[in-house]
Amino acid sequence: MKKLIVFLVFFGCVAQSFGQKYYTKTGTLDFEGSVEAFEPVKASNKTTTAILDVSSGKLAVLGLVKGFRFRNALMEEHFNENYMESDKYPKATFNGIVNGFSITDIDTQKEYTVEGDLTIHGKTKKVTATIVIAKNGDTIDATTNFSVSPEEFDIDIPSVVSEKISDTITITANFNLIKR
């Protein structure tokens, strides 16, 4: 009986060390590239997948480009067909690491630096941003924002509308992650 208890405790500890992933399929990605005096250029995707491995700090995010919703249907159509070419480049991804992350260090919330590879429109660029991570019972909330330019990802903005779209696009991500 004593051997069985020791085995169960050992197995429980080993299982815990390999089962340290939190995920969501309902994360939110927002972007805004508005210029004053023109119609807002912003959209939201509420079906983003994110996985955080709390044992290593690795973070992976996947957003389908066609998942972004605009207030104006015509703007959404132009976004998908003309700018993002979402049939050709259907996904936007981020693969990186939350530097110095430790699940045991979070009482309520803590600020970290996240860095990794952002792939949009078939181009990959290094990105570094601040991420705020909070532990709420059995869930983890993660929020970050950073800016990119369409040029970095070879996204062509026609000169006819270039003055209506900012040179800098702000991306905000919010994830409520549950233990897998």
Please give a structural write-up:
The protein has a domain at 43-146 and 174-179: Beta Barrel (Lipocalin), CATH 2.40.128. Strands 1-2-3-5-6-7-8-9 form an eight-stranded antiparallel barrel. It has two helices and nine strands. The chain is elongated and about 50 Å long. It is α+β, with helices and mostly antiparallel strands.
Summarize the structure.
With 180 residues, this protein is an alpha+beta fold. It is 16% helix and 49% strand.
CATH topology of the domain at 43-146 and 174-179: Lipocalin
The helix count comes to 2
The percent range for helix content is 10-25%
| CATH hierarchy: architecture of the domain at 43-146 and 174-179 | Beta Barrel
Query: Cα-atom Rg, whole angstroms?
Result: 20 Å
Portion in beta strands: over 45%
The largest beta-sheet arranges its strands as 1-2-3-5-6-7-8-9
Q: Indicate the structural class.
A: alpha+beta
**Terminal CA distance:** 31 Å
Number of strands: 9
Give the SSE order as H and E letters: HEEEEHEEEEE
For the biggest sheet, the summary is: 8 strands, antiparallel, barrel
Give the CATH class of the domain at 43-146 and 174-179: Mainly Beta
CATH superfamily of the domain at 43-146 and 174-179: Lipid/polyisoprenoid-binding, YceI-like
Large-scale geometry: elongated
Poorly predicted residue ranges = 3-18
Offer a few descriptive terms.
single chain, 180 residues, Lipocalin, 9 strands, disordered N terminus
